[in-house]
Amino acid sequence: MTGGRVFYVAPDPVAALGSQLSVLAASDAGLAADPGRITVVPGGGRAGRSLLDIPEVGRRLQREASAVVLWTGSAAARRRLAELGVPSANSDPQIARRLENKAHFQDAARARGIPVPRSVSGVAGPALLAAASHCGRAVFQLARGYSGAATFPVQDASELAALVTRFEGHPCRVAEFIEGTPVTVTGVALEERVALGPPCLQLTGLAELTPHPLGSCGNDFSSPVPGAEAVAEVAQRTGEWLRELGHRGIFGVDLVVDPKGRPWCIEVNPRLVASLPLWSLSAPAGSSLLDLHLAAFGLAEDTGASLDCHWSQLILYQQGRAGSAEAPVSEEGAWGSAGGFVPDRRLTLAGPGLGRVGLIRRSPAGPGKELARLILEGPLIGAGGGLLPHLRAAVLALRAELEPEPAHQ
């Protein structure tokens, strides 16, 4: 193999913003053309795995790649890369699959001594309903699901019974609802250590952004996090557990901090995470989260540097309307004097500059799918827990543009 570059292969290049990776993607997500960095491969579908089967992609990776990073690794992708003779820079997908199964995670984490809410796991049906009847206010989750699409708040026994009937026969979890502040900690599991970044507020269930009542919809790295020391301690223990299980590379830990400052671990994401570009933008000349991820696979040096992040993001999910059929255009700009976003150039893979704002638009892909995101510096949340007024106005304007109300006859 003659190559020396690490390639990111995925449906779109968003996770590679601010990085030095070369990108092979099915879509450019509306970014400005960058022939030296982004190659759009028609017919690539909606998964990085499908791109690997395209002959021209395989030949290029064999010629030029020292390794490949996928947005989501899989056993099939690892086999295909092995056929091509190109190393994979994703952790063992079987480890991730077990841990992202919410029913398995709950029992395994509790056995490890990680604080998790009380819960009942099993197959949705009469037995599970009887076992969970004491839960009262709870959270019903299917075993698998992302961004809150398979997570439902439960107010009482009748709502729980309705969900159990709706999803009868499906593996699920019913967990005690923890009132508090959602928080995320991102880190990297290396061979000899776990590196953690600072925790951030995880925006959850904001109606302006997501149709899912408990869906994550952004990261605020500038607002204070309650119980930060206790959060870091639980995240460190969780990261060490993942490392011992064999996970390598980036991971995320989702927690809720209750009113007494106690953190409760809700789930782990042993894979690349949506906040990845924020970390790359925060460390353009230093050791970034992605640098440490590559170090976990012997593709970069672990300098021992600490991780930091000072960018934030809002993620807008499709509510259900058809949306615009026009090709997306992603832009960079600033806040205008009236508070609105004023674009002045196409956004590139380098991401927005300091003090600037990046807007990524996507083609509508169906209800609950990501439609757009704003990447910016500074706090997102006001004292009352909602979006700051200028951000709320920008989000509402963006939704009106991308999901216009149908014209009345």
Task: Please describe what this structure looks like.
With 409 residues, the chain is α+β, with helices and mostly antiparallel strands. It has helices at residues 48-52, 55-64, 75-84, 93-100, 102-112, 126-131, 157-166, 228-245, 276-282, 289-295, 389-402; strands spanning 5-10, 22-25, 38-40, 65-70, 119-123, 138-142, 151-154, 171-176, 181-189, 194-196, 200-204, 216-220, 249-257, 263-269, 311-317, 331-335, 341-346, 357-361, 370-377. Strands 9, 10, 11, 12, 13, 14, 15, 16, 17, 18 and 19 form an 11-stranded antiparallel sheet that branches. Strand 6 and strand 7 (151-154) form a beta hairpin. The termini are far apart. The mean pLDDT is 90.
Short description:
The protein is of the alpha+beta class and 409 residues long. The chain is 26% helix and 26% strand.
Q: Summarize the biggest pleated sheet.
A: 11 strands, antiparallel
Rounded radius of gyration (Å): 21 Å
Instruction: Label the overall shape.
Output: globular
The overall strand count is 19
Q: What structural class do the secondary elements suggest?
A: alpha+beta
Kindly, what is the distance between the CA atoms of the first and last residues, rounded to a whole number of angstroms? 62 Å
Q: Return the average pLDDT rounded to an integer.
A: 90
- Portion in strands: 25-35%
State the order of secondary-structure elements, H for helix, E for strand: EEEHHEHHHEHEEHEEEEEHEEHHEEEEEH
Give the uncertain stretches in residue-range form: none
